[in-house]
Amino acid sequence: MLKYHIDKIPDLRLSEPMALDLSLSEAIAGAPGVFLVSETEAEFRAMKGRITGTLGREGTDVMVDVTVGYEVPLSCVRCLEAFVRKGEVGERTLFFHEKNATADELERYGKDGWVDLGPWVRELVLTDLPFYPLCDEACKGLCPECGENRNTGSCSCHPEG
Ligand SMILES: [Zn+2]
Ligand SMILES: [Zn+2]
């Protein structure tokens, strides 16, 4: 889990931010889903990657700055083959105590003082994934007649090329 209590987050007016360096799957497994795609817990557990960055606060405003390197198994929409997409996404944001949060889009945390970065990191990775994943931009897809993967060879209905 990627939850930190406000009392344990260093105040930047007094000290340096804390360094984050975590395994992605451990950090976001079990985080509540916030993004409407066909995400499943198994998909998240299959992700590899690391979250690095810093966490600090000024008063009750929590500043997070992370880089997430990820490896996510996907299926190509053209040839249906599984492949692994490697990517990196960086983002910084502020989490506000709910009493100071004014607009709906602000990241916020509740009265209990626990700041949960999990759903936010999860969404960062998901929004970085392509809507139509391709194993390769030049993927030739499946033969519309016999269904063979045209990347791996020629079928009898479509000789070479
Ligand atoms: Zn493909
Ligand atoms: Zn064919």
Which short descriptors sum up this protein?
single chain, mainly beta, two-stranded antiparallel sheet, five-stranded mixed β-sheet, 161 residues, binds zinc ion
* Beta fraction: 35-45%
Overall average pLDDT: 85
- Structural domain count: 1
SS summary, helix count: 3
- Which structural class should the secondary elements be placed in? mainly beta
> What does the overall shape look like?
elongated
Instruction: Return residue spans where pLDDT drops below 50 for at least 5 consecutive residues.
Output: none
Question: How would a textbook summarize the main sheet?
Answer: 5 strands, mixed
Say which molecules are bound, naming each kind only once. Answer: zinc ion
Task: Provide a descriptive summary of the structure in words.
Strands 2-3-4-5-6 form a 5-stranded mixed sheet. About 15% of the residues lie in helices and about 35% in strands. The termini are far apart. It has one domain. Strand 4 and strand 5 form a beta hairpin. It has about 160 residues and is mainly β. Bound molecules: zinc ion (ZN) (2 copies).
Tell me the layout of helices and strands:
Blueprint: E1 3-5, E2 18-23, H1 24-28, H2 41-45, E3 48-58, E4 61-75, E5 82-97, E6 107-109, E7 114-116, H3 118-128
Parallel strand pairs: 5-6
Antiparallel strand pairs: 1-7, 2-3, 3-4, 4-5
The structure holds zinc ion (2 copies).
One zinc ion binds near residues 145, 146 and 148.
